[in-house]
From TrEMBL, chains A, B:
Biased composition (Pro residues): 407-426
Domain spans labelled Smf/DprA SLOG: 102-313
Protein family: Belongs to the DprA/Smf family.
NCBIfam families documented for this protein: dprA
Region (Disordered): 392-442
InterPro entries registered for this protein in UniProt: DprA (IPR003488), DrpA_SLOG (IPR057666)
Name used for this protein in its record: DNA-processing protein DprA
Organism: Nonomuraea purpurea
């Protein structure tokens, strides 16, 4: 799994690895100017230009035409100073010694979806773990959220980790406390690979108490970073890192996020990259769900309440459809309309005769009599000296008179507000009226 | 507040009140055939036709052309039987004695937005309470939800009742346990009128333990029903009643609803009537929020997390805008970019000299020195024998070096994942790349 001589030479360019390792030291992560320089001149020529402290004149001219022309001299000085104090060969050796490998654009393990990042595509990625990054990310979803997650958030994150993993999906996330850690643990439990994208070197353990977690991920998934080995995390690196989480996966799910949260930054990257975006709702009394609700309210994210729904969102059309949530059926649903009307007309207390029941129900006497017989046989009603009334304690083997079900149905609650499930396309039960076009009269 | 002789005669038609009271006995609530009969021939002629057991031939011919022609003879028999066993004059007297009043289309208190219901418009409404129904409903929102609400649901409902009421909005809801009761109590506490729409006669107390609540509503708002006095609630009446809750208000909010819930039926009525629809999210682990999440997921409802957001939804454009939820600001936000870069490059442990800080931060030495001075003065960093490092216990009067604020800002947490609030239009922090059109490569 190391970037052995064989891998490097099979890629035909050990020099390119070293040049990219050098540039990863020189530039800030995601620096678009460095990105354009490398895209246009290649990594080796870029290194030479920086060491010579002279950028190609055409490049300088082109950059000066940018909307906000960068201070190229200052940038070049920074790159030069950092290059002078770094040792890319040592980086490669150190990484290799730690068990990591450098993957660059063109490597077999390079995830080509990162090419969509354009000039801010990472110069290279350090990988540490047994899983193949490119293959793992083919069916992957990012699950992100608050570091200071609530117990609700970590519970949901772990459930989604298990659910996505069991369905054969790889999870991509950061390595922080809270949602990140919980979702990785869930995915590991399911036996699926999981991808941790760090904002520091792959040999740096941040947060340090996640050492065992990262070790488990390396064993079953892969820990990756665009930072050179030994680099420590900073605020800026966390924010830039988020674009990788969004770009690697087919869609991003925000489990919990306060209004000021890095997870919302990842969500914005997902939208910019035309990736799918989901958000898990939570109690409106929880500040840690406010960011999710903002995404839902602005219709930027789809409301996701189960791993199946997330897979439905990011999956292949037709292959990964979630089963529609459906209301439970109760025995009463299978009664026909006339029987239902008769049942509704039967009093709870006292009693009523068939004639008055028929008038109240709005059906003929024959219909009423036949319905009463069926309802009594099924245990819904009983006859008293004062007439028919509802049974107070319905039989536990209550079933609809028409039903041939062998299974005893559950006891229906005597609840007048209980309504039958709305039909698939959700029209109102009473749709006899035609609403006018105006949303409000006058 | 009674339907006094004066009111009836000012409307010029005591006979119409009596005819409508009779028809309210004869027909099921919301019966569209009765609705069409009354719309075409007026209530008095309809009563005569039923008593004569002969519908106008043109009407019969027209009904036979309906997509699913109704059994008019059976319907007429039902109407006839019920009319024969009822006494509309006694109804009016009984209602008046109980302190209620009958309001019919054309009455000054008739809420004309109900005319949108077309043939299923109620034949009349019994009102009991001090508030004027038409005036109260001009600025009104329906708040509905589960009878078996969770403590979360009743808490939210009460909060919305108070919030809507304090902003001058009338609440419309049913009279059930759970969300209905809680939202009325909240609105009553705010001093605003509230409208209870019953599925039984206004003199029937269902559920009976809501007697004190309904008494309070009658004192400050109004209890209404389209059922004649003394009628008991049935399943069908609850469902038909829901269209009134949706039609009376400018928009409906679903606070909590299981997948099988009457609140979803009200929501469907609101959509059919082109009213606004909102849903309050909740924990995805709660079955009582599953219906709300379904509405959000299908983008039928807007995600509502505060009374202000509901008012923003149903209110007048420009007048009732909710303040946008905004992430909190922290002192660090006001640091300029170079200072932030320098702060990010300062180690937590040990220490670093200005030259290495400048290289790590990617700024010039002069910039670094000036930023270090400002950051030290503001209490972010401190100098040790080994160089500069972050202060472990930031001063409680920490402020940004450039800030002239007199108020001491809160202590920022030393959290590298803490991000500045996204700008208004929410672009990603790093937007240097141009995403391609394809949502996923290859």
């Amino acid at each position: 799994m190391l970037p052995s001589e064989a891998t490097i030479s099979s890629n035909g360019n050990a020099r390119e690895y070293e040049a990219r390792a050098a540039l990863m030291r020189a530039a800030d992560v995601g620096d678009p100017i460095m990105g354009r320089l490398v895209l246009q001149y290649g990594p080796s020529q870029a290194v030479e230009a920086i060491r010579a402290r002279t950028l190609p004149p055409e490049f300088t001219a082109k950059e000066a035409q940018q909307e906000r022309p960068p201070d190229l001299t200052a940038r070049l000085n920074v790159w030069y100073a950092r290059l002078a104090s770094s040792n890319p060969t040592a980086d490669l050796e150190e990484g290799e010694k730690a068990g990591a490998r450098l993957v660059i654009p063109g490597s077999p393990e390079w995830p080509t979806q990162l090419d969509q990042l354009g000039a801010s595509r990472p110069l290279g990625l350090w990988l540490h773990g047994k899983a193949d990054l490119r293959f793992s990310c083919l069916k992957s979803a990012a699950v992100v959220g608050a570091r200071s997650a609530t117990p609700y958030g970590t519970h949901i994150a772990a459930e989604f980790g298990v659910g996505l993993g069991e369905a054969g999906w790889t999870v991509v996330s950061g390595g922080a406390y809270g949602v990140d850690g919980a979702v990785h643990r869930g995915t590991l439990a399911s036996g699926s690979p999981t991808v941790v994208v760090l904002a520091c070197g792959v040999n740096v353990c941040y947060p340090s108490s996640h050492e065992a977690l990262f070790a488990a991920v390396k064993d079953q998934g892969v820990v990756i970073s665009e930072c050179p080995p030994g680099v420590h995390p900073t605020r800026a690196r966390f924010l830039i890192r988020n674009r990788l989480i969004a770009a690697l996966s087919r869609g991003t799910l925000v489990v919990e996020a306060a209004l000021r949260s890095g997870a919302l930054n990842t969500a914005a990257h997902a939208l910019t990259l035309n990736r799918y975006l989901g958000a898990v709702p939570g109690p409106i009394t929880s500040a840690q769900s406010a960011g999710c609700h903002k995404l839902l309210r602005e219709r930027k994210a789809v409301c996701i309440t189960s791993p199946e729904e997330m897979i439905d969102l990011v999956g292949v059309i037709g292959d990964d459809l979630a089963t529609q949530t459906r209301p439970p059926a109760v025995p009463r649903d299978s009664l026909n309309e006339a029987t239902r009307k008769v049942l509704d007309a039967i009093p709870t207390r006292g009693g009523a005769g068939p004639a008055s029941i028929a008038v109240a129900a709005g059906v003929g006497l024959d219909t009423a009599l036949s319905a009463l017989g069926g309802l009594a046989a099924a245990g819904y009603i009983e006859r008293t000296t004062r007439g028919w009334r509802l049974r107070k304690q319905p039989s536990s083997y209550l079933k609809a008179p028409e039903s041939d079900a062998l299974e005893p149905p559950p006891i229906p609650e005597p609840d007048p507000t209980d309504v039958p499930p709305p039909p698939e396309d959700f029209p109102p039960t009473q749709s006899a009226y035609q609403p006018s076009e105006a949303p409000w009269p006058g």
